[in-house]
Amino acid sequence: MFIARQPIFNQQLEVFGYELLFRLESQSTQFGGISSQGATATVITGLYESGLENLIEDKYAFINFDEIFVHSNALELIEPGRMIVEMLENIKIDRTLMDRLEEIRHKGYKIALDDFKENYCEYPLMPFADIIKYDLIATPLERIEKDVIKALSQNKILLAEKVETEKEYLEAKEMGFQLFQGYFFSRPSIAAKSYNKTTSKSQYVRVIAEIKKVDPDFDALAELLEQDVTLAYRVMRMASFRSGNDLVSSVKYALTYMGLDELERWINVIMLQDLGKDKPEELKKISLIRTKFAESIAIHGGMKKLQNAASMMGLFSVLDAILDQSMEEALMGVALPPSILDALINHKGVLYPIYELILSYEKGDWNVVDNISKELNLEETVLVRNYRWAIQWANEVMILVS
C-alpha cells in the first residue's frame, strides 16, 4: 500500500495536518477486486498498524471517504482528535449518508467537503461540514466571495487547495481562509525576507570547500568551525550524539570522531536549517525526508555507489525556496558533483529518476511512481518502508538541529 502525505498549513504557515494519499496496489488505481468498504478498512487498519504518529506526528490526518467508505467500522480505529473525515466531491448523497455523518460528528469527528463547487446554501451536506476545501484553480477566489462571507458567518473553516503562489496565499488569507494546501511554500516566491543569520552561506561554503579538498586539513577545518560558536556547538552536539558515553572534548576531536563524510552530511543539514530560519519548519523537514528517501532509493535501485550524491541532491532540492532564488542561483558557489546539478537544475542525468520519483511520490502521482520504480527494479514494499523511515528520521533530526 502506497501512502504519501501533503501538508496543510494554518495562517502562520505551521502544519495543521496532512492529507494522506494512498493506493492499495502498485499495479492499479482500483481496489483489486475487494469491496470499497474492505478497501477502506485495509487502508485505515494499515495506517493504524504502521504507526500513525510517524506519518502525521501530532497533527490531523485528512483522509478521503466516499459514501461507502464512510460506513466502515474501521473509521473509529483512529480517534476523533487525529482525523478529519474528508467527503469526496462526487459523493452520492442520501438519508443513510446524512445519518452516518450526524453519528460520526456526534462522536467528535470533523468533516471536510473536498473540492467544493456546489451551491453553498442548497448543498445538503453543508450543515454537517466543519471544513470546506476550495480548489483555487477550479473555483477562483473572485467567484466564491459571497460563499466565503456566508461560510465565515457560520463559523466554517475554509481551506484553500492548490495554492501555487505567494499572491494566491495572501489573497486567500485576506479573504478569510484559515488553512492552505499547495506548493506555494516550496517555491522561491513566499515572503523574501532579510535574514539575521549567525552563520552565512559563504562561511558554510568555506567549510565544505575544505572538506572537499583531496587532503583536508583538520586543523584548518577546526579553525573555520571555531570562528562561529553556534556552528562549533552544533557540530560538537552531533558528535556527542554519535559518541554515546564517549567524551567529545574539542571541535578537532569531534571532526576525527565523525569522519569527513559524516561531517559533510551534518554541515549540509545544519546549513539548510540555518539558512531556512525564517521559513516554514515543514519546508526544512521536507529536505530531510528527501535526503534519506533519496539515499534509500539509490541503495535499493541499483545505484549504491551514488547514495551519497543522491542523499545530497535530496537535501538541496529545496534550497531555491529557502533562499528565494532560482535553483541555479541558490547552488552557485556550492561545491556539488555535476550529477546533482544536472538533476536539480537541468532535470536530466543519472540522478534525475530518483528526484522525479520523490516528487511524484509526494504528489501521489502513482503512475509515474510505478514507471520509475520498474526502471529501477524497486519493490513497492521497499519504497513504502523507506518513505516512512525517512519521515521518522527527519523528525528525529529536527529535534537534534533545533
From TrEMBL:
<dbReference type="InterPro" id="IPR052340">
    <property type="entry name" value="RNase_Y/CdgJ"/>
</dbReference>
<protein>
    <submittedName>
        <fullName>EAL domain-containing protein</fullName>
    </submittedName>
</protein>
<dbReference type="InterPro" id="IPR013976">
    <property type="entry name" value="HDOD"/>
</dbReference>
<feature type="domain" description="EAL">
    <location>
        <begin position="1"/>
        <end position="202"/>
    </location>
</feature>
<dbReference type="InterPro" id="IPR035919">
    <property type="entry name" value="EAL_sf"/>
</dbReference>
<feature type="domain" description="HDOD">
    <location>
        <begin position="197"/>
        <end position="382"/>
    </location>
</feature>
<dbReference type="InterPro" id="IPR001633">
    <property type="entry name" value="EAL_dom"/>
</dbReference>
<dbReference type="Pfam" id="PF00563">
    <property type="entry name" value="EAL"/>
</dbReference>
<dbReference type="Pfam" id="PF08668">
    <property type="entry name" value="HDOD"/>
</dbReference>
<dbReference type="InterPro" id="IPR014408">
    <property type="entry name" value="dGMP_Pdiesterase_EAL/HD-GYP"/>
</dbReference>
